[in-house]
């Protein structure tokens, strides 16, 4: 009798444990960058590539998208961000084919399509520059919560621009998942991208 009761209690405990385990949702993946939980901004865009073709996030569905705002005459921040992105692509190896880096200009008056055709790919041949009109650039920046301010120069064409230095990361389904700081090392960014590529968490 005692053995039967022990078996019954043990079986009941295993069933209860199984039910509890089934009720526990899968753990969210861990990231080095700041994880964004269902953000209501930076959902999509309508911008032009250097050939004049209108682009949106849907064009890169199935890939992790890294999106950064800047301008080609930026003296330090933008080259640093794009150089890090190029290093990330190197670290990813074959997985780099599943990543798209986008550089959105905040300076469409000077960053012509011809210049955008050359500048981002100078860091990596797969990088793409995007632009829109001056007025729509301001609207896009607000939607993406990107701050920028034009500082007067000695001539009308020598101004600089202060701007946000965050890189946004979208998962292969086109959902904004991460805000990557400017100081994040390439190794950490590469690890986060691998997590996004393999994550099934919605």
Outline the structure in words.
By secondary structure, the chain is of the alpha+beta class. It has a single domain, classed as Glutaredoxin (3-Layer(aba) Sandwich), CATH 3.40.30.10. The protein is 33% helix and 20% strand. It is built from five helices and ten strands; from the N terminus they run H-E-E-E-E-H-E-H-E-H-E-E-E-E-H. The chain has helices at residues 2-23, 77-92, 113-118, 134-143, 186-198, and strands at residues 34-35, 47-48, 54-55, 64-70, 99-105, 128-130, 148-151, 160-163, 167-170, 176-180. The strands form three sheets. A six-stranded mixed beta sheet has the order 1-10-9-4-5-6. Strands 2-3 form a two-stranded antiparallel sheet. It has a two-stranded antiparallel sheet with strand order 7-8. Strand 7 and strand 8 (160-163) form a beta hairpin. Helix 2 packs across helix 5 (186-198).
For this entry, give a set of tags.
202 residues; alpha+beta; Glutaredoxin; two-stranded antiparallel ribbon; globular
